[in-house]
Amino acid sequence: MEELPESLIADILSRLSIISVIRCSCVCKSWRNLLLDSSFVGPHLGRSSQANPTLILYTLASVGASNTKLYFVDHLDSDEPTFSELSFSIPDLHEYCVIASCNGLLCLVNSRDVSEVCVYSPFLRQFIRLPSLVGDPGKAIVSAVGFGFSPRTKEYKVVASVQNVACGNRYTALLVCTLTRGSWRCIGCSDAMGWRINFGTFVNGSLHWIGLFGGKYINAFDLADERFAEMRGPKTGGSYHLGALGGWLAATHLSSKAHADVWIMKEHGVEDSWVKSYSVSLNDIGWEPGFVQALCFNGKGEVLLLLNKRTLISYNPESNKLRLVTIGGLPFGFDAVTHVPSLVQLREDRKLSE
User: Fold this and answer.
1) Per-residue CA distances from 31 to 46, 271, 341 (Å)
2) How far is residue 179 from each of residues 28, 43, 98, 118, measured CA to CA in Å?
3) Do residues 175 and 117 lie in contact, with contact meaning Cβ atoms separated by under 8 Å?
């Protein structure tokens, strides 16, 4: 291997899975430096984003566990997906929600105090703890948080809305934190993110929240311009959950106790491009779900669905059949986000591995 050009070594290693790349980084110092260099991280991220999707699962506090656990699920297109627990030890953060995954980075909020936000690299085990969103918990509450990356400005940003409850009104401040700066900026006031705690959906350089009045409108926050744009939601006839599916903005609507529709916005920002792409009968699962969320395509053209935050099923549009995704050791209660593994680093952070 010493006789091979470094560029060829980098090209070979960039085709490996994230687990294999992490192992290779332990071979020698020169390989570690190569694998953490931006000239390698970019191509590896590009290949990872084109590969079959993976999932990050995390246990829910409601199932009685003292600490949240984090899991990585790969090979979703096989009959036996791989499933492994990830090490996690951010000081004083024991119960948390994963609100988003972007380019291999996770945005976490404290389950007991949503004003505490961290950004975490699960494979490099690096993190940034952002300043608290609320100085005095008795005077303000956090009502929404989102995380994403602007391709135009090349910046990662966390966006949040904070309600000033001490004033006795619905004054809501809109705050933005650019990771390279590490501090919150107030850019105005807006109710576009809603008044109840919810997390934004990142698609096409924008974060999306369902509007205040039953999902008729969706509010998209452009991370580059830092402005909201309102667009009409899908005509589902009822409430729905937003998500990202194959790079499109998607909405999952439980139209009856045994039927779910998945709508996709084929052209971002074009209201007439909403299409009911999948109509899924849930009769065969043997019970009536109260929650359905489309997560991703699994590499076979099937749609992976999360039911009641405890069951994964795969829907085949060609055969119109459902398949239970069996993963040994899966916790009883969990939530999931689609994840693109990467070596994107948090430069000015505290490194857990040190």
Assistant:
1) 20, 48, 19
2) 30, 22, 17, 10
3) no
Rg of the Cα trace of the chain?
Answer: 21
Torsion of CA 87, 110, 349, 156, to 10 degrees: 110
For tokens 């969990």, name the residue.
Answer: 334
Of 294, 280, 195, 186, nearest to 249 by C-alpha is 294
Q: In what order do the strands lie in the sheet with 126-129?
A: 96-102, 105-110, 117-121, 126-129, 350-351
Residue 121 structure tokens: 């690299």
What pLDDT digit, counting tens, does each position of 257-272 carry?
889 999 999 999 999 9
Encode pLDDT of 96-147 as tens digits.
999 999 999 999 999 888 889 999 999 999 999 999 988 665 567 788 899 9
- Cα 37–chain centre separation: 25
252: Cα within 13 Å, side-chain hemisphere: 21
For range 80-101, the mean pLDDT? 89
Residue 290 to residue 333: CA distance in whole angstroms: 14
H, E, C per residue of 281-347? ECHHHCCCCCCEEEEEECCCCCEEEEECCCEEEEEECCCCEEEECCCCCCCCCEEEEEECCCCCCCC
Residue 120: C-alpha distances to residues 87, 126, 252, 320, 346 (Å):
12, 6, 28, 38, 8
Q: Which residues on adjacent β-strands are paired with residue 73? A: 55, 83
Q: Which residues pair with 276 in a beta bridge?
A: 263
Please give the model's pTM, rounded to 2 decimal places: 0.90
Question: Which secondary-structure segment (H or E) carries 248?
Answer: strand 248-256
